[in-house]
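Reviewers of the previous submission asked for a worked example of the structure-prediction workflow described in the proposal, so we include one complete record here. The input consisted solely of the amino acid sequence. No template or homolog information was supplied to the procedure at any stage.
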Amino acid sequence: MKNFYSLRIPLSILTLLLCAGSELSAQSAAPTDVQGIVSKVKWSKNSSSVSWTNQGERFELDLGSMRRASLGKEKGTEGRMRRRTRRARGPQGASTGEYIGRPTRGHQYTQVNSPDGQWEAHYRDWNVVLVNKKSKKTVAVTTKGDVDIHYGTASWVYGEELGQRSAMWWTPDSKKLVFYRFDDRGVEPFHLVTGWSKINTKQYAEYYPKAGAKNPVASLLVYDLESKKTTEIACGGKLDGYLFHVHASPDGERMLVHSTGRLQQQLRVLEMDLETGTCKLVVEEHQDTWQSNKPGVRYLEDGERFLWSTEKSGYTHFELRDLDGRSYGDVTRGECQTERLDFVDEATGQIGFSAYSSTANPYYLQYHVASLDGKKQQRVTSLDYHHSNFSLSPNKQWLVAQYEEVNTPPSTVLYRMDGSVAAMLAEGDASTAANLAEMFSFRSDDDKFDIYGILYKPESFDSTKAYPLINSLYAGPGSREISARYVSRERRENKRGYLVVKVNNRGCGARGKAFLGAAYLRLGDVDIQDHADAVRLLAKRDYVDGQRVGIVGHSYGGFMAAMGIFKHPDVYNAAVIGSGVTDWRNYDTIYTERYMSTPQLNKKGYDTGAAMTYVENFKGKVHIMHGMVDDNVHPNNAFQLIAAMDAAGKPYESRFFPNAGHSLGPGFSKTTWEFFDRILKP
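From that input alone, the workflow returned the following structure tokens.
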């Protein structure tokens, strides 16, 4: 599992897609050829006019007179308007080399070529080797690497949970090579077996540190090609924490690294002195729960100052800082979560960004502009709907945006930057609303938050009938289960005769740090509580059959499905657990301890968040599925649950995939619906 709370400013990573069958995860979005959606927005160079395509016809609007003209039918195939905000990219980090190949999940590149093209750095047999591309001369940078201590590579958990796909980095001038040294002594390996469908099997060990157990010790070394000297960087690598995200400053003069403690409550960005091996602090942040490990950074033109996405206010905002450690103050503010930085215009001292700032609904995205000095901030999209598909004029005085909500068809509007509506470019017809989804809300059981969910209905919905309900979910920290976009088509589950409910539970993203951190130390407690409470609320409706409720998920969603059926047997009648964690003691240090601390410090939380704790309560139907070669959520999660159910005399169904890793492929979806159709009988 990856950290879903990695920031989208710009978007870092991260997403782990957990429902192997698309019908378990897909939400319909409106097609581009409908009445209120435009595509191919084009501005004149002087921003005096804007043109667009709507339903195959080209239009142009004169921004002085506000006169609209038809330019005739669009030539060629109707294009899809860009879903992502256009972002002007300032100077970012200089090159640390050309990475060759494609590492498998959780692993790192084994070759990186120097920026000047003269050298290749290779990870070979636990060591770092350089090859001169012209002379083919080989330089053994390290020679003592082995299975316990190795160079030029990292641990699986670094690749999976920190997105660390590189383990060697050239300085932009190609004179030095920075590389990892990993000490796995004391890390207990997990042994996986392959070849289950063959005559004989093979065993392999993955150095996979489990929650509360000994971690690998990472350190950084730098090799100087001229002096042939190797220097260790003194940046805390021998502490019980993490070193990651090595990168260069835009001018290539500085090499930087991120450092965090084992519980990941603070983040330090350090500048490495590659001559002396010392480090200097650039910026440090701390949270009482956990600190995002890779905040977004946008450098300004001088390559020294940068916009830093900080969480110190309890919401993600932008602060202006420099590489010498100075802060110039907050650029954005307010009780809202910024989403994406769109542009930085140093000439006018202005930035544009999107944020979840609507007071009408916390999931309505809006567009803002602010001054770099932090003195002014303006919400541009004044209508209280969800906005997307932004297109900004070259002079940054006009904004085209699409607006909609779950049951309101999209329209496209032209805004002035003061927030006033200048023109409607394409208007959706409310009378054509599909009525396939309903957003609802309720108060959390601790009375601190409004929880939002969406109920999806089939096209043939009949309120006089009683339907089975499926709670399809992932719901891990920082994830997003629902969107406020218009739902124009029924989900595939709806076509099978089910209602579907999805919920943005406590712990999901886009709501600020308090909402995100509400599940801290309590995974499988408050998060599944919100889903169960949503089902309890919906079950009061005549058309929802509260005796036919299923829950299904994969990976973290599999964990949530297990917690639902075992912890809330009064709510859920059937569950499908796909590749799910069943006890967080089975999962890796970085992900688990970020949200749960260690089992030694949080025994109650680990016990509360273990499915086996509630096996005696079980009275429904459950189907457990897992891959036998899953190096992410190990198969012993499923075996431990099955052993507990056997001991308690509880029935279950299971399917194990002999050659599958974490993803179970189409067999997961097929088995899921055969099970639900048999048990819930829609």
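The first strand starts at residue 39 and ends at 43. We consider this example representative of the routine output the project will generate in years two and three.
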